[in-house]
Amino acid sequence: MPSPLRQDKRRFPLHVHISVMFTFLLLLTGVVLGIFNYRQTTQIILASSEKLFNRIEQDVRLDLQSTYEPIQHLLSLLAELPATLAPTLEQRLTLLRPFSQALKDNPNLASLHLGYANGDFFMVRPLRNAELKALFKAPDTAAYQVWSVERRGDQVVSQFVFYDQALNLISRQEIPGETYDPRARAWFTSARAEPEQITTEPYVFFSTHNVGTTLARRSGESAVLGADLTLAELSATLAKHVVTPSTEIVLFDAQGNAIAYPDSRKLIIDDNTAHLSKVADLSPNLGALLANPPSGKRLNVDGRQWIVARSHMQQGGPQGLQLALLVPEDELLIDAYRLRWQGALLTLATLLLCLPVGWLTSRILVKPLRALVQEADAIRSFDFSFPATRRSPVLEVDQLGVSMARMKDTLGSFFQITDSLCAETRFAPLLERVLHETVKI
Predict the structure, then answer these.
(1) What CATH architecture is 235-331?
(2) What class is the 79-230 domain?
(3) Taking every annotated instance into account, which residue ranges of this chain make up the domain HAMP (predicted)?
């Protein structure tokens, strides 16, 4: 039968148990705090991103509003001018001054024009750059171009008239074989059919190759006043709201044509005829969003999670425009990941610093116990001269040391009584000595 006092190899010193427990508790605390901080930081970032998405949407709405509303008010005022119903070019040229001032005050306006039920057309276009002047073969000093189309039966008279900044006539150019007819244009037919202003779907302007739209309204019974409005500023607005390096943000119409994109160079495809890019052609992630709209606010594309925001804008066309924003979750939560790893490193560093402290503290606490073990071994060998253990700051260890000292004194007294019984032959002194030793116990 094995002895219960035999030492087991699987047993470890108390200071090892204390150190292991101390390390485990420290690791557990670090892990719990790290997970808690990561989850809280993630929630804060996601909540902040939702507010950011709302602010981006609001900025785009305000930009659309500030782009369209002034032009809508301008058309309402200009449509009341009597000269809009003038039958000849010379009479319509009285519109040059108010039109040029309106174009000067609204840099997003590409042109102002009038279409007539008889097929006549009158346009004032600002020549703001050298490319436009080269396109229309305008003089270098030209600031405005008037394009006039007059129909007299089967005869069509078309010409460009150029003016300088002070509206002084510079030159005229005849355009033979003119085929342009405003009555075949969507802006003219739509405005003639509606009592209020209309806005066309965005398209690519032929002259400037900018993305824009046409706002139009009736002027009297026979004319339609239109304004070509460029939307280049919308792309600049979206570019300001690229949250992370891989953020995708786009403004598009009901047909999926991209109207505004941070990289505006990708908006127009110029092969045989210039036309708008499809959203799906700009980015596979945007294509995935349009092809399979998620029910929530997350989209998985090729194993990568994206945070999605999508909203509808009333302005921008007959069916309005839509704004889509995709932000990769790993980039959006990069601060949360960074805090998580910083917390893990801080916990590890704290553990490495505290391990020696815990080891030293446990050895200091265990030292009185080791002395008690040595004292107990001495008592087992009937050696009562072994020095008493010093007091311990641990209450239970100190109480054990005191009890051990009392037990040693008691055993010593019993051994002295035994010695007295063996050495003393006289009964009276023996009784006195036994009584004295017993009282000491």
Answers:
(1) 2-Layer Sandwich (3.30)
(2) alpha beta
(3) 363-416
